[in-house]
Structure formats: structure tokens, C-alpha cells
Amino acid sequence: MNILTVQNLIVKRSGFTVLDINELGAEKGRILALIGPNGAGKSTLLLTMAGLLKPDRGKIYYQGNPVDNSAARSFMRRSVSVVFQEPLLLNTSVYKNVALGLKFRHLTGTEIEKSVEESLDYFGISSLATRSAKTLSGGEAKRVSLARAFALKPEVIMMDEAFNSLDPPTRETLIDDLRHILEKTKITAVLALHDREETLRLAQDVTVMAEGKIIQSGTTAEIFN
Length: 225
Hints:
Elements: E1 2-13, E2 16-27, E3 31-35, H1 42-49, E4 57-62, E5 65-66, H2 70-79, E6 80-83, H3 94-104, H4 109-122, H5 138-151, E7 156-160, H6 168-185, E8 188-193, H7 196-202, E9 205-210, E10 213-219, H8 220-224
Parallel strand pairs: 3-8, 3-9, 6-7, 7-8
Antiparallel strand pairs: 1-2, 1-4, 4-5, 9-10
């Protein structure tokens, strides 16, 4: 069952079509990788699927229901977390950064504390809770941004080439940790990736893109074999 589906999707910029997708679905509980060269349309597709970019044409379905009004869009956005290439942390403590989205949802102090501590523990950064975000290394900042996204307990998490700026050892460790966390939580993931090895290690399903279109879709084994 697809938790998120797009159909007949058209996105234009300056009058030119940059995305033309007949149909694509993210299956519930699985990890889908969007791969392709720079300019293939991966980021545009990711942002459109997340409801952050309005398409010129086409439909988005979340949990089988059309996302065609403000109430439906609000419901979907509350269920989807997005992690961008840059961590986008506030100049405050790690704890407060991870708690930020939870406070917007008006949870109680006890609920926020439980979710933040659980998410910090997931990514092995509990010891950084009181540290200022501006003192973090690139790898630490990335873990904080992921912890913030997972603290919301989303149904779907989307990541836009989130490993690109990391050095190889940091990237390797984080990919392993992320894979284990996704396997444990069963959160659906859509990842825009540029690296073949990242895709092989993380994804169960792969969609290959070029020039704003889907070239091939299938399981990771089918695509790479």
C-alpha cells in the first residue's frame, strides 16, 4: 500500500517544465531513493511530494486521500518531516532545536521531554543536549537536524541529499545509524540521493530520474542488477 502517491505531476519554472511525472508512490514502511544526475529533478519532486511546492498540474494522494484542499494539506504536512541538505539549526541549545517542532504542536512539557530524549538517544547525541548549536561539527549538526525530524514521530520522512556535506567516515557512520533507526521505527522514507553506495546501503526501492522524468523504478536489486 502506498502511503504517498503523485499522479500526472507537472511543475514549471519560468514557463519551462522541470518535472513531468506520470505516477510515483512511496510504499508504507519502506525506503524509496530518488537518484539521478544534478538537475534531474530529485529535489523538486521531493519538495512537491512533501507538499512544500505546489505543482502546476497533477494530484497528490496521502493515505489514499487526495490532498486537494487546505485541511488535507495541513494534515499531510503534520505527518511529514523534511530534512534539508543544510541542517538549518537555530542559535540555541541542541535540546531546544530538537524540541522546536513539538512546541509548535502545543504538547505538554512531559510529552516534549520524552520525545526529545528518545530522539537524541536514537542518534547518539544525548550528551550534546545542552550544547549550543553553533559549536557543533558538521556531523553533529546533521544528527541534530535528523533528531528534530524524528522527534515529531512522522509517518513519512524526506531527506534531500542530506549526506553530501559530510566527510566519508562521518557519512558512513550516520548512514548505518539511519538505516537501523528506519528499520526500527518503520517510518516511510523518501531520500533524494546522489551516491550509488548510499542508495545500495539504504534503499529498498529506487526511482531513477533524468531531465525531470522517471527513467526506471523498481526494487534496489532490480535497478542495480
